[in-house]
Specification:
Radius of gyration: 26 Å
Order of helices and strands: HHHHEEHHEHEE
Strand order of the largest sheet: 3-5-4
Number of helices: 7
Number of strands: 5
Helix content: 40-55%
Strand content: 5-15%
Structural class: alpha+beta
Distance between the termini: 63 Å
C-alpha cells in the first residue's frame, strides 16, 4: 500500500471523524442517512432511559425496572450497528477519495486583500474528510500545535510567581502572523537577543515582552488565518 493510500484509508478518516465529533462540529450532511437514523434512535432510547433513572428505585414500577435492562441492551446493540454503518460509509468515502477522478472543487471567495485570494471547497463528504486528513498531516509534518488554556495559565502563573515586579497582561489577536515571520530566523530567540539593551546590569527602564504563541491552521471555509498570543509585559527599572 502506498503512503498516499495509507493517508486516506478508513482508519485515517475514522480518526478525523472522532476529532471533529468530539468538538461537536460534525455536520450531518457528511454522514450517511442510515447512520443518522440509528444515531437518532439511540438518542431517543437514551432520553427514555434517563427519564426512568431520574426516579428513585423505590418509586419505579416493575415495568420500568424491566424497561431499564431492555433499553440498555438495545442501546448496546444500536451502538454496534452505528459503528458498522459508519465503517461502511467511511470506507466508501475513502474509495472515492483514492480514485483517480477525485478533485477538490475550489470556488473563489471575496477577499479583503487582493494578494491573498480565498477559496472554499465543495460540500461533499469526500472533500470534507480529505481536507481534515490533509490538515492533520500538515499539523504533524510542520509540528504545529495549539497551546491549551491550562498550559498557558500554568506558564503565566509560573512567570508571575518568579518575583514581585509589576506585570501587565495584554491579550490580542494577530492577523497575517505566519507571513510576518522571517523564514531565515525560525530558530528560538533568547531574551538577550530580544532585549539586549536591558541585559547589561543597568537599572535603565525598559520592557521585556515574552510571548506564548498559540498558532492555528488555516480554516477550510476560506477565513483568514489568525494566530492568538498572550503577551506578558514586565516593567524593569
Amino acid at each position: 500500500m502506498s503512503q498516499y493510500s495509507f493517508s486516506y484509508n478508513y482508519d485515517s478518516l475514522y480518526d478525523a471523524f472522532n476529532a471533529v465529533n468530539r468538538k461537536g462540529k460534525m455536520q450531518k450532511r457528511y454522514l450517511s442517512p442510515e447512520y443518522l437514523a440509528k444515531a437518532q434512535e439511540y438518542r431517543e432510547m437514551r432520553k427514555n432511559l434517563n427519564k426512568i433513572l431520574r426516579k428513585k428505585k423505590a418509586e419505579r414500577t416493575e415495568e420500568e425496572t424491566s424497561e431499564v435492562d431492555k433499553l440498555k441492551q438495545l442501546m448496546k446493540n444500536n451502538a454496534q450497528q452505528q459503528k458498522i454503518l459508519l465503517q461502511e460509509h467511511l470506507s466508501k468515502v475513502s474509495s472515492r477519495i483514492l480514485s483517480s477522478s477525485f478533485r477538490f472543487n475550489l470556488t473563489p471567495d471575496a477577499s479583503e486583500d487582493p494578494q491573498k485570494p480565498l477559496y472554499t471547497i465543495g460540500a461533499t463528504a469526500e472533500e470534507f474528510f480529505a481536507m481534515q486528513v490533509l490538515c492533520r498531516n500538515m499539523k504533524k509534518l510542520f509540528k504545529i500545535s495549539m497551546s491549551s488554556r491550562h498550559e498557558i495559565l500554568f506558564q503565566l502563573k509560573t512567570l508571575l510567581m518568579e518575583d514581585k515586579s509589576r506585570y501587565y497582561i495584554i491579550r490580542t489577536d494577530v492577523c497575517h502572523c505566519f507571513e510576518s515571520i522571517p523564514q531565515s530566523a525560525t530558530r528560538p530567540i533568547s531574551l538577550r537577543q530580544m532585549a539586549p539593551w536591558c541585559m547589561d546590569g543597568s537599572r535603565t527602564a525598559c520592557t521585556v515582552i515574552i510571548c506564548q504563541w498559540q498558532t492555528g491552521i488555516a480554516q477550510r471555509d476560506g477565513r483568514r488565518l489568525k494566530a492568538r498570543h498572550i503577551c506578558l509585559t514586565k516593567q524593569v527599572i
